């Protein structure tokens, strides 16, 4: 069992920096995620991983500006 199994629709997961690799390495985690799953677009582009993202992925690419809005709307926040 992973943390993705306990997420609810009101939760959000944002991957950035090397965390974006989780979406490539463990796509099944995100396929089962009930929360809003997002990846910082600039980190995917910086690592040239766009082509490796699963086509069926529910993960949304977001900008740094969108990240600011997300951090304003989701409380509390934790980092793993």
Biggest β-sheet: strands ordered side by side in the sheet: 1-2-3
Total number of beta strands: 3
Individual helix count: 4
Radius of gyration: 12 Å
Beta percentage is 15-25%
Succession of helices and strands = EHHEHEH
Identify low-pLDDT runs: none
In short:
This protein is an alpha/beta fold and 80 residues long. It has helices spanning 21-25, 27-31, 41-46, 64-73, and strands at 12-15, 36-40, 60-62. The protein is globular and about 30 Å long.
Describe the structure.
With 80 residues, the chain is α/β, with parallel strands linked by helices. It has one domain. The chain contains 4 helices and 3 strands, in the order βααβαβα. The protein has helices spanning 21-25, 27-31, 41-46, 64-73; strands at residues 12-15, 36-40, 60-62. A 3-stranded parallel beta sheet has the order 1-2-3. Strand 2, helix 3 (41-46) and strand 3 form a beta-alpha-beta unit. The longest helix is centred in the last third of the chain and has 10 residues, at 64-73. The relative contact order is 0.21. The mean pLDDT is 89.
Which tags fit this structure?
three-stranded parallel sheet; Sulfur relay protein TusB/DsrH; Sulphur_relay_TusB/DsrH; DsrEFH-like; 80 residues; alpha/beta; 4 helices
Write the layout of secondary structure elements.
Elements: E1 12-15, H1 21-25, H2 27-31, E2 36-40, H3 41-46, E3 60-62, H4 64-73
Parallel strand pairs: 1-2, 2-3
């Amino acid at each position: 069992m992973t943390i993705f199994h306990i997420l609810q629709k009101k939760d959000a997961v944002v991957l950035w920096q090397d965390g974006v690799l989780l979406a490539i390495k463990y796509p099944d985690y995100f396929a089962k995620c009930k929360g809003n799953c997002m990846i910082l677009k600039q980190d995917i582009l910086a690592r040239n991983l766009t082509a490796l993202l699963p086509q069926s992925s529910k993960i949304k690419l977001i900008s740094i500006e969108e990240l600011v809005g997300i951090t304003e709307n989701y409380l509390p926040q934790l980092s793993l």
